[in-house]
Structure formats: C-alpha cells, structure tokens
Amino acid sequence: MLNSQLIGSYISKLRKEKDLTQVELADRLNVSHQAVSKWEKGDSVPDVGTLVLLADEFNISVDDILNGGKKGDKSFKNVGSIVYNIAKKDTNKAAELLNTGETEVDDLISIAPVLKTSSLDHVTKNLDDKKFTIKHIVQLAPFLSEDSLEELFNKISDDDSYSIKDIVHLAPFLRSELLTKLLMEKRDSLSIGDIAHLGPFIGGDMDELIKEIPLKDIRFEFIMGLAPFVSIDVLKSLVEKAMDEEISFNKIVAVAPFLDQETTDQLVLRINDQKAESHQLSALAPFVSKNVLQEIAKSVEIDNHTLVTIAPFIGHNELERLIEEADLNELSPNALANLAPFLSQETLVKLITKIKN
After folding, report:
1. Is 156 helix (H, G, I), strand (E, B) or coil?
2. At what angle are helices 117-125 and 79-87 packed, to 10 degrees?
C-alpha cells in the first residue's frame, strides 16, 4: 500500500532541489499550498491527476513518486501506466494493461486510496473474471461502490471460494440483502459469534438468519452484541440458551433495555447472591419490577446520586428506608428537590429537619 510519509518526504526533497516554495509548487499544479503541505507531512497523498502533473513537473515517473525515490527494491514498478490512463479517463486502457499482465491487480489495489470510486468501478468492470480472487475483492471493497462490489463478487461466487471470514470483512460494504444471502448459503458453518459481529450490517433479516443456524455455544457476550438487532422473542430464546453461563450484573445491564421486565427479573434473581454496584442499580431501575429493584438495593451501598436516580422506580417504604440509611450530610438542595415528589409530606419535613441540624 501507499506510504504517505515516504511519498511526502520525496515530494519535499524534489521541491527543495528545484528551489520552489510550497506556494510556487501549488500554483504550478493548480492546487492549494495547504495541499502541498499535507503531502509533505505525510497527512495525505496527491490524487491520480496530480501525480501525473508532479511526475511531469520533476521529469520523473509516477512509480518514482510512489516509491518515494527509492532506486533499489521498489514496491511500485508498473503502476504509473495505470495512473496515466486513469488520469486521462481511459479506464478501458487501464483495464487492458491488467488483463494482458503488464500490470497486476495488486498494483491497482495499491493505488486504490487515491482513485475516485467511479474510476475504480470502471476499471474493475472491464477486468477478466480470472484476474480476481476473494482476497483482491476484500482489499478493494472499501474503495468500490456497492453495485461494483456486488458485480465483482458475483464473478467469483460460483466457485464457493469465499469463507465466512471473508464475508465478515466484506460486511460493511455490502448491501444487507446480499450479505444475508451469502450468510444463508454458509449457514451450516455459521456460528452465533459470527452473527454477533455482523449485527449492524444485516438489517431486518437478523431474526430469520438466527433461526436458520445451529445455535451452539451461546455466550452472553454474543447476546449483548445482538440485543439491539433482534426481536424480543429471539433475544429471549438466546438468553434462555445461555442460562447455564455465569451471569453478572454488567451483562444484564447491557441487555435489559431490549428485554421484557419478566425476563430481566428472572436474570437478576438468578444472581441475587451477588452484590451490585450503585451504578448498576441505577441502570437496571427502569427495567426491573419494583420488588426486584428493592431486593437488589438491600445489598448496595447507595450514594445520593443513585438514591435520586432510583426514586421513581422503587416503593415508598423502601425509599424511606434507604433515606434513613443515607449520609444526609452529602445530600444537596438539588437532590432533595428531586426526591421530594416521591416522599410523603411527613418524611420530607423530617428530612429537611435532619439536614438543618
């Protein structure tokens, strides 16, 4: 791949040898001096059109620039010809160079970061099917349009040369419909862990996909990743299958917003021998029943912030018990005001009196 720092250093060297300022070089290339500055710092690299202009300006080849002026072992040997043809918008000629073997697909991949998506789409569309492997497609995926990527993938999909790992790498760049189709074709070897990694990309077909795969080794870390992307019924079924795993309050906090109250209560009661932290109590308060919240609260050292947070969800008597045990010296007027709607007038008067004393 391109080494922006090496390229930038070489551009800086060439400019200085020609005794040009960054502004003067920028004017000759019809770019801003800020762009030249970014190149020389290694923050970016010139696009294909500017690479051609740079090569002409310093009477060198594009390959020389991409290699950072190295004269020995060169990473880029025949890339310049691709760059020149793409810069001239002759993508057919660029594809022909690849089809005849004058340059390699790896060379095209190396300059993909400086190519426009439309240019790369046109080049790949005209390449022979046998030129591509799944490895090439995975490497090109971030730079191709969805249509071109799908078309390219279809060229090799018949030979079943791709793996689930390849699909995972391609997932951010594929349409959800194609992604689901590919996963369905591999469902016999698909694991719930694979699906968990792909949650944000699958879309509305997640439930059906999970129903189609063999559910083995269900771990809560997978369920936590899947929770936002599946229906409550599927999520509950996954939770039931993971019941034998050791559960913690942190794990329950992660899935509680996506479960029903009954299931969340069951999970909490399974670990009622564990001691929750105050922040976990606050996080669970909106998602568990009043009785379960009171049960958790019995073993928690509650600070005043937590007291205010759980007040809307806990029973009147339990709230007053917690207030009795709280360190009232730390209770701010603002906290007292937030608690007031949930306290009886008698309790509120007692509390104010305690604080004043």
Report:
1. helix
2. 110
The confidence band for 357, taking pLDDT boundaries of 50, 70 and 90, is low
Greatest Cα pair distance in the chain = 92
CB 144 within 8 A of CB 36: no
CA 144, CA 226: separation in Å to the nearest integer? 28
Q: CA–CA separation, 228 vs 161, rounded Å?
A: 32
**Left if phi > 0, otherwise alpha if psi is -120 to 50, otherwise beta: which for 311?**
alpha
229-278 tens-digit pLDDT = 999 999 998 888 776 667 889 999 999 999 999 999 999 988 888 888 98
Amino acid type, 228: P
Q: How many residues does the chain have?
A: 357
Determine contact, residues 110/1, Cβ cutoff 8 Å. Answer: yes
At the topology level of CATH, where does 1-77 sit? 434 Repressor (Amino-terminal Domain) (1.10.260)
CA distance 247 to 262: 17
Measure the CA–CA gap between 160 and 142, rounded to whole angstroms. Answer: 22
Distance CA(250)–CA(326), nearest Å, equals: 24
Q: Which of 91, 78, 95, 31 is nearest to 57 (CA)?
A: 31
Would you call 84 helix, strand, or coil by DSSP?
A: helix
The number of beta carbons lying within 10 Å of the beta carbon of residue 204 is: 11
- Residue 310, token pair as written in the block: 């759980």
What is the DSSP secondary structure assignment for residue 116, as one 8-state letter?
-
Per-residue tokens: 219 = 């771990």
For residue 112, count other CB atoms closer than 10 A to its CB.
20
Residue 22 confidence class, pLDDT cut points 50, 70, 90: very high
pTM of the predicted model as reported, rounded to 2 decimal places: 0.72
Answer for the pair 51, 87: CB distance below 8 angstroms, yes or no. yes
Q: Look at residue 326 in the predicted model and tell me its pLDDT.
A: 64
Could you give the CA distance from residue 147 to residue 224 in angstroms, rounded to a whole number?
Answer: 32
Q: Could you say which DSSP state residue 44 is in?
A: -
Residue 30: HSE in the Cβ half-sphere, 13 Å Cα cutoff: 6
Backbone region of residue 212 per phi and psi (left: phi > 0; alpha: psi in -120 to 50; beta: other values): alpha
Q: Chain centroid to CA 322: how far?
A: 42
